[in-house]
Design brief:
Protein name: SDR family oxidoreductase
Shape: globular
InterPro entries: NAD(P)-bd_dom_sf, Sc_DH/Rdtase_CS, SDR_fam
Structural class: alpha/beta
Family: Belongs to the short-chain dehydrogenases/reductases (SDR) family.
CATH topology of the largest domain: Rossmann fold
Order of helices and strands: EHEHEHEHEHEHHHEHHH
Oligomer: single chain
CATH class of the largest domain: Alpha Beta
Keywords: Oxidoreductase
Strand content: 5-15%
Organism: Rhodococcoides kroppenstedtii
Length: about 290
């Protein structure tokens, strides 16, 4: 599918990867509805993008907000072509995470995708026109998230749901991609994991010491190029594929390496410092192709 002259909805579009994706889509000649829990942030992005963008505030874990976003896109710009399920949360952390935190993580990081797909995919099938569903998951959905059970579990589920969508509808005119970055310079990383919650500094360090922290605009450019090619797995950090291969090749060895890496992160957590690369390499499966997580 050519990513031009399309109508798109981007959730979590008020900042970070979502704002960058909305901007990249508009720059490529598409029209976009920017949705965010922070309605003011969504409006600011839409204002910056001009007459090819509109804004909507609301919680995209709510069916009514998803429906309102699609209705706004179609009433303003025409039939929807692309749905970007990008909104995310770092609610919860370890075993002490409350049921409410688990509910938030699963609702935003997984069920919001399910509810969006439930709405838009039948419309695309009925129209007989191609549609594109992009899920923003995380490298944590392929590997794990040291420090946060809620994030790791919900992102694994997001990847699993995207896989299921592609297997089920990929030969019926619905393209599906799953974006799995490691560290990206966003508020989700900088204020979500890096906070005073127990385990948060370890979770943040696990991301920032694993590899380069990319800028959202770089991730957006990589994503649009992959969508043009209709590639399922989008990896702005190419090393994630090596890590994932190592994990599947020897699961026990990979877990042992991750335990060592977690221990090194926990030892350096009080000062909010991160292990140097030699410590990181010693904690991984082998020093030539180390298994680091994001």
């Amino acid at each position: 599918m050519r990513m031009t002259d399309r109508v798109a909805v981007v959730t979590g579009g008020g900042a970070g990867i979502g704002a960058a994706l909305a901007s990249a889509l508009v720059d490529a000649g598409n029209r976009v509805v920017v949705v965010d829990l922070d309605g003011g942030a969504a409006q600011a992005v839409a204002d910056r993008l001009g007459d090819r963008a509109r804004a909507l505030g609301g919680d995209v874990a709510d069916d009514a907000v998803i429906a309102a976003a699609v209705d706004l896109a179609e009433s303003t710009f025409g039939p929807l072509d692309v749905f970007v399920a990008n909104a995310g949360t770092t609610a919860g952390m370890g075993l002490d995470s409350t049921d409410a935190a688990w509910s938030t993580a699963l609702n935003v990081n997984v069920l919001a995708h399910v509810r969006a797909a439930r709405l838009v995919i039948p419309r695309w099938l009925e129209r007989g026109t191609p549609g594109y569903f992009l899920t923003t998951a995380s490298a944590a959905g392929l590997l794990t998230q040291i420090g946060s059970a809620t994030y790791s579990v919900s992102k694994h589920a997001a990847v699993g749901f995207a896989e299921w969508l592609s297997v089920t509808y990929g030969d019926r005119g619905v393209a599906v991609s799953c974006l799995c970055p490691m560290g990206v310079n966003t508020a989700l990383l900088n204020s979500g994991f890096d906070s005073d919650r127990e385990g948060a500094s370890v979770a943040a360090a696990a991301v920032t010491s694993a590899g380069d922290v990319l800028e959202p605009d770089d991730v957006a450019r990589t994503t649009l190029e992959a969508m043009e090619a209709e590639r399922f797995l989008i990896l702005p950090h190419p090393q994630v594929l090596t890590m994932y291969s190592q994990k599947s090749a020897d699961y026990d060895r990979w877990i042992a390496g991750m335990r060592r890496y977690r221990s090194s992160l926990e030892r350096s957590a009080p000062g909010h410092s991160t292990p140097d690369h030699s410590t990181l390499e010693r904690s991984t499966l082998d020093s030539a192709a180390d298994t680091r997580q994001g």
